[in-house]
Every structure is written in structure tokens, then in C-alpha cells.
Amino acid sequence: MDLGIRGKRALVCASSKGLGLGCAEALAEAGVDLVMNARGVDALEAEAARLRSTYGVDVQAVACDVTTSDGQAKVIEAARGVDILVNNAGGPPPGMWSDWDRDDFIKALDANMLTPIAFMKALLPAMMDKGWGRVVNITSQSVRAPIAVLGLSNAARTGLTGYVAGTARQVAPHGVNINNLLPGIHATDRADALDSGVATQQSISIDEARAARAATIPARRYGTRAEFGATCAFLCSQQAGFIVGQNILLDGGATNLTM
Ligand code: NAP
Question: Which ligand 1 atom is nearest residue 22's CA?
Fold first, then answer.
């Protein structure tokens, strides 16, 4: 399907690996020029070069931590005037409700709520002026149903979801659509880190931890970054112009909900 966005320009935060990379690649395949970002320069430059040569799009790589104000300023400078914004950052560590203090919450809120809000605040006005824009925030299935060991994620991402619910309706009259994509478990480094924690805790191998988790998912497998990216690119397409303020679960049926 032609997504109708060839020649547009996107910022994809935290995109040298995993779900962010899946989004960057699907947008590149649709002919979108990119600003990619991650902290580690090697993987970022390598993936930027691969997308440039595979899809013939322009790719600028900005290596920095998006959760810091310096990093945000650097990325915003490079991304000024983008048509598409994909917000993403690393997820907070697991733990128990009694483990976290104020500083842990501030860190999680910075990464998974205040950073995407800062990018929207900086980049939405130009989209509204042009009368066209798309924002996709990568959040988590934990917004629909809490994951007990990810209390920091449950809290920060639900805060972002509340902000988006109101903001999406304020910018929609200007042709700008904001939606959230809620990943369930996908085969990425983040999933490996969570599975190795379970493996250590239960004295089992990481393969056993993975198989046990996959068995709880109706699709009986983890999602892929390509599937996730394709959904993101569709939300950024011309065809998705009537989708506003939605929270779309990509979880293989794992969250047991009627709606
Ligand atoms: P991942 O495989 O670990 O990849 C994370 C990417 O983000 C890497 O490119 C990493 O590169 C970059 N990154 C991390 N922190 C950053 C920062 N502060 N500034 C700039 N770049 C940063 O993670 P993922 O699985 O794709 O997950 C992406 C998001 O989705 C996370 O918030 C995660 O919690 C959430 N999520 C994932 C799953 C899943 O199953 N995978 C499920 C639910 C929610 P550098 O390390 O070089 O910076």
C-alpha cells in the first residue's frame, strides 16, 4: 500500500534498535527522510547508513540522551520542521511497589512522560502551521492493564496517555493526529533484559523464561519490530487521517479485554 508520505520528514527517538528501529525502517520504506537518535553512536550510525543505502532516503543521526534537556535541545534543533514525530525512550527498571523513592519516579516520569511531552510541545506548532502532522508515542500495554513489576512504567505512561487524550483533540482541527502504540512483548533487547531477570529469579534458563511467557500470549509468540514498525507507519499515513487520540494495543491478544 502506498502510504502517501513519500518525501515527508520524521524524527524517530531512540531508534538504533528494537521498536524505534522498526518504526524508522518502516517509515524509510515508505520514502520518509529521517532524524534518528540513540545514546550509543556505533549502532546508531550503522543503522542510519543501512536505512540510507537500502531505501535511498536522507537520514541524519543525532547521538544523545533524549531524557536530558541538552539531548532534547540537540534533537529539536536537528528535527525542526518535521512532519512526523515518533516518541520513544528506554523503559524503567522492574521492581516492587515498595522499592521506589521520589528520585526513581522523577527519572521514570522524565523518560516516559515529560520527554515525549517536551518533543510534542516543540514540534507540534510547525505541523499545525503546515496543516498536516502525525505523532506516534510508543507507550506500553501496561497503560491498559498494569504489569505489577513495572510500577514506574505503569505510572509514567498512564500520565502521558492522559496528556495525549486532551492534546490530540486540540491539535486535530489543524490536521495533526496524535496516537499511542501500546506494545505487548516484542523480541527486542528490552524483552531479553526482562526475561533474564525472570530467569535469574526462578533459576531457569532465558529460553525457558521466554517459552513460559510466550505460552501466556494467545498468538503464542513475541511480536517483531517489523510488525510494530508497519503499524506505526500506517498511523503516520494519509489513510490514517481520521484516527485521533487512540491507544492501539499490539500484544498478540495478551491483554484480556473486551474493548
Ligand atoms: P530496546 O530494544 O532496548 O531499544 C531501545 C532503543 O532506545 C535503543 O536504540 C537505545 O539505544 C535507545 N535508547 C534507550 N534509552 C535512550 C535514551 N535515554 N535516549 C536516546 N535513546 C535511548 O527497547 P525496545 O524493546 O525497543 O523498547 C522501546 C520502548 O518500548 C521502551 O520504553 C520499552 O519499555 C517499551 N516497551 C517495550 C516492550 C517490548 O516487549 N519490547 C513492551 C512494552 C513496552 P541506546 O541504548 O544506544 O541509547
Answer: 26
The rounded Å distance from CA 188 to ligand 1 centre is: 8
Measured in Å, residue 212 CA sits from the centre of ligand 1 at 23
In a shared domain, residues 210 and 90? no
Q: Which three cell numbers stand for residue 226?
A: 517489523
- 256 found inside a domain: no
Residue 92 Cα to ligand 1 midpoint, Å, equals 10
Residues 100 and 143 in one domain: yes
Residues 180 and 190 in one domain: no
Q: What does the pLDDT look like over 162-221, one tens digit per residue?
A: 999 999 999 999 999 999 999 999 999 989 998 999 999 999 999 999 999 999 999 999
Query: Both 194 and 176 in a single domain?
Result: no
In the chain, the amino acid numbered 203 is: S
User: Ligand 1 centroid vs 131 CA: distance in angstroms?
Assistant: 31
Specify whether 153 is located in the same domain as 177.
yes
The residue whose C-alpha atom lies closest to atom 33 belonging to ligand 1 is: 91
Neighbours of 84 (CB within 10 A): 29
The domain total for the chain is: 2
How many residues comprise the chain? Answer: 259
What are the phi and psi torsion angles at 22 (to 5°)? -55, -40
What is the position in ligand 1's atom list of the atom closest to the CA of 65? 19
- d(CA 161, CA 112) in angstroms, rounded, equals 10
Is the whole-model pTM more than 0.85?
Answer: yes
